[in-house]
Write a structure and sequence with these properties.
mainly alpha, DoxX family protein
């Protein structure tokens, strides 16, 4: 597909890179000192404790609460890895699916706070569109190395 300035595949690469920059900003704006000393998980625990769905409370209590430091690192460095992977186009389909899942987790945890949901829904939509459009076909290490053809 040819458009005014770029091909369709190049426009989808722009979308992928933009999503990567968004993930990188999610990582960058975290107060790392507070986050890694338990602040982020403590905040999430307060939200999970009042969640309207028991499965969210139970899942948080079984998976996250026993490992607050580990989970803080997992969340922060997942955002960093997603951002860098999408920007350079490395393992892009895996990054898109992982990002979609992370956004859905954020969406479910914060279901009562609609101020946060626009960002999560938009990022999830971009991940789904990028995956279906094979957005790693242009301007990516995946394309350069012949991965995921």
């Amino acid at each position: 597909m040819q458009t005014t300035w770029l091909t369709g595949a190049e426009w989808f690469a722009v979308l992928r890179i933009g999503l990567g920059l968004w993930w990188l900003e999610s990582w960058r704006h975290k107060d790392k000192k507070t986050w890694f000393t338990g602040g982020g998980i403590t905040w999430a625990a307060g939200i999970a404790a009042k969640h309207r769905w028991p499965v969210v409370r139970t899942g948080f209590d079984r998976i996250v609460r026993p490992r607050p430091r580990l989970m803080a690192y997992v969340v922060a460095y997942a955002e960093l890895a997603l951002g860098l992977g999408l920007i350079v186009g490395l393992l892009t389909p895996i990054a898109l699916v992982a990002g979609l899942l992370l956004n859905l987790i954020y969406l479910v945890l914060m279901i009562h706070d609609w101020a946060e949901q626009g960002q999560n829904l938009m990022m999830a939509l971009i991940s789904a569109v990028g995956f279906c459009a094979l957005c790693w076909q242009s301007w990516s290490l995946d394309a350069a190395w012949g991965l995921f053809l």
